[in-house]
Design a protein that fits this description.
single chain, 303 residues, alpha/beta, Rossmann fold, 11 helices, binds pyridoxal-5'-phosphate
Length: 303
């Protein structure tokens, strides 16, 4: 830290200067925004004397993986409450288990009510005392961690761009901006217009203020979470050919496609310098841990 800031030259940008904030390089096991989002929550958990972290996620959640890895590194026991009555298991969850995480499955209907006090009380009764980290890590403390990214940018800029999952990262970035600067997020899930209210709620809870320096563009989900489209695939292939940089297809590529489309259609108005936050790598870790990857593959296929 701070993560590198590198300029990308691309003829399609016209007069826009594009800088990539390479948060994907922060740490091989909990890269990017996941580390920024967890940092102050882990400090708070430690200060409160908690020994176990509990959090929520889907079977392919990067956040679940990041909490498991952070727990192992920092000496917390971890519990992952996973959505799905069919008890999904895959390489991503296998890595979390390898990091010592205990998995607890709940059905989709209960998962939807996971913030209700009755569900939380049930989890406490069943799984013991724990420090709760919300889905995607998007607690007020996460916003403060993400806001810090802005102070790491050493030159003037007009616009920050990022992918949007739960909105915590965008909400935090927005809080770090100076007057006149804006953040534009691209939602990677379909039908999540409610996120705009969620971002307002998160910001109000964190700072007591409501900011109007942010926008979420809901047009580039490419079919929904982890879905792909021909246009997205083509964009990724072309981008790699031009820049030798393979974009993460779940989050980063959709935001980059959105940005390049908006620039082509002249939708951004007059912007000079844009900082694009590369929130994560194309695939969490794996490359750095070939032996563990092999062992894991063997175990997953034997289930
Ligand atoms: C989790 C994740 C996001 C989404 O962040 P939110 O704060 O939930 O919006 C974006 N990019 C990558 C690479 C992620 O892993």
């Amino acid at each position: 830290m701070p993560s590198p800031l590198v300029e990308l030259s691309d003829e399609r940008l016209g007069s826009v200067r594009l800088l990539l904030k390479r948060d994907d390089l922060i740490h091989p096991e909990f890269p990017g925004n996941k580390w920024r989002k967890l940092k102050y929550q882990l400090a708070d958990a430690r200060q409160r004397g908690a020994s176990t972290l509990l959090t929520f996620g889907g079977a392919y959640s990067n956040h679940i993986r990041a909490v498991a890895a952070a727990g192992r590194h920092m000496g917390f026991a971890t519990i992952g409450v996973i959505r799905g009555e069919e008890q999904p298991f895959n390489e991503s969850l296998a890595l979390a288990v390898e990091d010592g995480m205990r998995l607890h499955y709940i059905d989709r209907a209960t998962y939807r009510r996971k913030s209700d006090s009755t569900v939380l009380a049930m989890l406490r009764a069943e799984l013991g005392e724990h420090y709760l980290i919300p889905e995607g890590g998007s607690a007020p403390a996460a916003l403060l961690g993400c806001a810090e990214l802005i102070a790491e940018i050493p030159e003037p800029f007009d616009l920050v761009v990022c992918p949007v999952g739960t909105g915590g990262t965008l909400a935090g970035l927005s809080m770090g901006l100076s007057p006149g600067q804006r953040v534009l997020g691209y939602a990677v899930l379909r039908g999540v217009e409610y996120l705009d209210d969620e971002i307002v709620r998160l910001q109000r809870e964190t700072s007591g203020r409501i900011l109007s320096n942010w926008t979420v563009d809901h047009r580039f989900h490419c079919g929904g979470f982890a879905r792909r489209s021909a246009a997205l695939d083509e964009f990724i292939t072309d981008f790699e050919r031009r820049h030798g940089f393979l974009l993460d297809r779940v989050y980063v590529a959709k935001a980059m496609l959105g940005l390049f489309t908006c620039i082509a259609q002249n939708e951004l108005g007059t912007v000079g310098t844009v900082v694009f936050v590369v929130t994560g790598p194309k695939e969490l870790d794996v490359a750095g841990r070939p032996q563990r990857a092999r062992a894991r593959r063997a175990r997953v296929s034997s289930r």
